Amino acid sequence: MTLRLPTTLVTDSDAAAVAALTKYYDRPYLGDDAYVGAHFDCWSSTGDRVGEADRFTADDLVAVTFLSVQVPPTAARAILHTEAEALNALLTAIGPDRDLVDEPDPLAPGWPAWDLETALWALPGIGQTKATKLIARKRPPAVSDLGFGGQ
Fold it and tell me: Is 59 in contact with 41 (CB distance < 8 Å)?
């Protein structure tokens, strides 16, 4: 078996390496055409930064893998980048964890957790199981105890 080094490693010019990095990270940096993996560099890895209770983080996406589900890369990018503002606003609107039996209003469309779950379902590769596991990570166990939504 012959090992072939990529062009970026066998030339004296930095042009090929610069082109590859530009394609990976995009211009502007982390623009719409950046590779999904490029976003890894800017995500919190500690889980204890201020404000993480009301936003999805890469740690949340990794955590659900321990529950035997995988979040597809395109959905992960949406959750952490392109749809983050809308999803995190719904997460914030849910408020702190609480017992669902104490909810004063019906659990139906218009209830923030319902709307968050259905917004997550709209992402490629995210169904009810993955959506409820992601929500449960942020609001355990109240929201996840009920399979609200359903089709």
Answer: no
Question: Nearest Cα to 93, choosing from 131, 54, 50, 41?
Answer: 54
Cα–Cα distance measured from residue 24 to residue 138, given in angstroms and rounded to the nearest whole number = 31
pLDDT per residue over 24-69, tens digit each? 888 888 888 888 767 655 655 555 566 788 899 988 898 888 888 8
Residue type, 145: D
Residue 7 vs residues 1, 11, 12, 13, 38: alpha-carbon distances, Å: 19, 6, 10, 10, 21
- Binning pLDDT at 50, 70 and 90, where does residue 142 land? very low
Do 136 and 146 touch, CB atoms closer than 8 A? no
139 SS3 class? coil
Residue pair 63/75 in contact by the 8 Å Cβ criterion: no
| CA distance linking residue 80 with residue 88, whole number of Å | 9
